[in-house]
Design goal:
By secondary structure, the chain is of the alpha/beta class. The protein contains ten helices and nine strands. Helix 2 crosses helix 10.
Length: about 300
């Protein structure tokens, strides 16, 4: 039996071996289980606290549904910033201690500053699953993303991945970068306006792990070259004065999609924004557009992770 995972805090914690030998196969199994209309008793008698300090649709709902499909129970605080004692100034460490006092088996938390999940883990007696910590990381999203890529191509080595949009504040591209670093001969195209380019910590990681990368300001320059075109939304809620994203150079159009290789795929962690409109509605049903498959894989991924952490 595989060793239990204590916490899920950041993508660097996972090895290639774990991804290929444990995570992909178990996620495949969860997918088969759900698609055949089944459920399991892996979390029978277990309770999970889902504590969200930032808005969410997919991550929160898929975690809840994952717990239920595995036979566990879940209590959700979906607006912890307003409805928990955070509003009275309680720290994440104290809130974690309280969840521990109520004997939850795991805490899934989305927090509004980088490092918050680590703080929680430093005091928690049960596993903490980071469901996004401010502009830090979103490890479970990157796991569903890498699973989606692997499922499509049957490999990760040798792929060329274009990250497009707000690469400065988007936590999903940061976490996925860390996972790509576990594989060989990866090329990354970074398409963003200068003010929203990938931060230096990730660029240093690319260098250290042999990822060849190049910066661009217009998606048109890479559209026919990348295997994976991973678009993102402008994280307006995190931007500082003077930082704006008007969408120039980072929006997909029908004309651009026509140039995408037939075997390539288009991804997006969602939500896509309706103002910048980085993936227009009319492109949704293109066979290369895997955005809703990606979201569905989030359910299977989170079932696999919960089983590995507390099953
Ligand atoms: C992402 C997030 O929360 O970081 N959403 C998600 O979990 N799928 C992306 C985003 O908010 O832009």
């Amino acid at each position: 039996m595989a060793a239990k995972i204590k916490h899920i805090l950041k993508s660097q914690q996972f090895s290639r071996d774990w991804l290929e030998k444990e995570f992909f196969p178990l996620t495949d199994k969860m997918k088969k289980l759900v698609l055949s209309g089944g459920r399991s008793g892996d979390l029978e008698g277990k309770t999970v606290s889902v504590l969200f300090y930032e808005p969410s649709t997919r991550t929160r709902t898929s975690f809840q549904q994952a717990v239920l499909k595995l036979g566990g129970q879940v209590i959700v605080t979906e607006n912890a910033k307003e409805f928990s004692s955070a509003v009275k100034g309680e720290t994440i460490k104290d809130t974690t201690r309280i969840m521990n006092a109520y004997h939850f088996d795991a805490i899934v938390m989305r927090t509004d500053y980088a490092g918050a999940a680590d703080e929680a883990a430093s005091v928690s007696t049960c596993p903490i699953i980071n469901a996004g910590d401010g502009a830090g990381q979103h490890p479970t999203q990157s796991l569903l993303d890498i699973y989606t890529i692997f499922e499509h191509f049957g490999k990760i080595d040798g792929l060329r991945v274009a990250f497009v949009g707000d690469l400065k504040y988007g936590r999903t591209v940061r976490s996925l970068s860390y996972l790509l670093g576990k594989f060989k001969n990866i090329k990354v195209d970074l398409v963003a306006p200068d003010s929203l380019q990938m931060r230096n910590d990730i660029l240093a990681y690319y260098k250290k792990h042999g990822i060849e990368y190049k910066k661009y300001s217009d998606i048109a320059d890479i559209i026919d070259k990348a295997d994976v075109i991973y678009l993102t939304r402008a994280q307006k809620e995190r931007m500082k004065e003077g930082e704006t994203a008007d969408g120039s150079g980072v929006v997909l159009t029908g004309e651009l999609l026509d140039k995408v290789n037939k075997k390539s795929i288009v991804m997006h962690p969602l939500p896509r924004s309706s103002d910048i409109n980085e993936i227009p509605e009319e492109l949704t049903d293109d066979p290369r557009m895997l955005i809703f498959k990606e979201a569905e894989n989030g359910l299977f991924t989170r079932m696999a992770l919960l089983k590995m952490v507390i099953g």
